[in-house]
Design brief:
The complex is a heterodimer of chains A (184) and B (191).
Chain A (H helix, E strand, L loop, with lengths): L1 H12 L5 H13 L1 H17 L12 H8 L9 H34 L11 H4 L9 E4 L2 E4 L2 H21 L2 H7 L6
Antiparallel strand pairs in A: 1-2
Helix pairs in contact in A: 1-2, 1-3, 2-3, 5-7, 7-8
Chain B lengths: L1 H9 L3 H23 L2 H18 L9 H19 L21 H4 L4 H19 L3 H12 L4 H8 L3 H28 L1
The chains are: A mainly alpha (184), B mainly alpha (191).
């Protein structure tokens, strides 16, 4: 019986225990000083062979450390819970970035081009000047053909700024939705 | 197996952490001795490193091996200790990825005292002698495990025998090695 248990301790040195056998070995080490010393002895011989230990003295730090850890809390984390707790803030952060980007994009689209039949009408401040042709843009596929260079320039500047923001916050795919031409 | 022990610690089993301490204490003390040079101070710093590891264990995600993670903590603790004592940490550093082979690092070897080197060499010699005196199958099993670092499963394939047989051969080899070490130590005490 004892031989089999010592064999278990030998396998523990080699990281070859799992599940019930590992639990059995842990119980053995913690419930019987003789088994604990036996395991330390196997471990020590292995350490010497690998050059991890320089002498015969086998300093066991567990007692001293356990004393210092007595007042420390025991953890009650489950692996899944630990993963979720780090995952959730990232989701909220990305969702917030996406919401901000979406609202800015929506405002831009509504404010600059708001015509249900695909026609753009000139904004008031752009049509008050005399002898100016109305600024007209027509939708052709994905491309808005805007007659007024100034408006197009402003729209481009806005989209460049928007892309830079989304590049930093990881919502590039959304930026492609609100941009209107890959070549611009 | 380390990962399973870590999961047990995370689930509130402090005793599982004791096993991790027992398993790695010699290595950690040895590494730290390379930095602080004083064996007694090294024990204190090692204790501190294990306490830090326990406190940080909820953040251990298993991206690296547990020992590699522990090794980094130990090195940082040793460096901080030297800085706090206004002693300059060694300029050299040992890559954490080489942690399991750190004993080969010449930078750390040079901090071994002649006495400790002598004892270490003597014990290694005794162990090798013990292995050579074993029956061939037992000697092969322990050599493949300890010197080649092979798993029981791999050894069973190489030696064409069941894993259970590998396990008992290695166990028998360990028994013989332990006996030889004890004999040598008794002889040393008598002299």
């Amino acid at each position: 019986m004892t031989i089999n248990l010592n064999e278990l301790l030998s396998a523990l040195v080699d990281d070859e225990l799992q599940g019930d056998e590992l639990a059995q070995a842990l119980t053995l080490i913690h419930s019987d000083e003789q088994f604990k010393q036996q395991w330390l002895s196997y471990q020590h011989a292995s350490d010497i062979l690998h050059g991890h230990s320089v002498g015969p003295q086998n300093n066991d730090l567990t007692g001293l450390i356990a004393q210092r850890l007595r007042d420390e809390p025991s953890y009650l984390l489950k692996p899944q819970a630990a993963k979720l707790s780090t995952f959730a803030p990232q989701i909220w952060k990305q969702a917030a970035s996406l919401a901000v980007a979406a609202s800015i994009g929506a405002l831009a689209v509504v404010g600059v081009i708001n015509q249900p039949d695909g026609q753009l009408v000139p904004r008031p401040q752009l049509t008050v000047a005399e002898n100016l042709q109305p600024v007209i843009a027509a939708r052709n596929g994905k491309r808005w053909a805007i007659g007024e260079q100034d408006i197009e320039q402003r729209l481009n500047t806005y989209l460049v700024d928007h892309n830079e923001y989304t590049g930093a916050s990881g919502v590039f795919s959304y930026a492609r939705v609100v941009s209107y031409d890959a070549g611009q | 197996m380390d990962l399973e022990l870590v999961q047990r610690v995370k689930a509130g089993d402090k005793k599982a952490f004791d096993v991790l301490i027992m398993k790695y204490q010699q290595r950690i003390v040895h590494v730290i001795t390379g930095f602080v040079h004083d064996p007694v101070e090294a024990l204190d710093v090692a204790q501190e490193a294990f306490i830090k590891a326990y406190r940080a264990i909820p953040n251990f995600r298993g991206d690296s091996a547990f020992y590699t993670w522990l090794y980094r903590i130990a090195i940082n603790t040793a460096k901080n200790y030297l800085t706090a004592k206004a002693r300059r940490p060694p300029a050299m550093d040992v890559d954490a990825m080489d942690a399991t082979n750190y004993y080969d690092a010449p930078e750390l070897k040079e901090f071994e005292t002649p006495e400790s080197k002598l004892v270490s060499d003597e014990l290694q010699h005794v162990i090798h002698q013990a292995i050579e005196s074993l029956p061939e199958d037992t000697a092969t099993a322990i050599k493949l495990r300890e010197l080649e670092g092979m798993s029981y499963e791999d050894i069973s394939q190489v030696m064409d025998c069941p894993i259970g047989t590998v396990r008992s051969r290695i166990f028998r080899a360990r028994g013989a090695i332990e006996k030889k070490i004890q004999e040598t130590m008794k002889e040393g005490e008598q002299q």
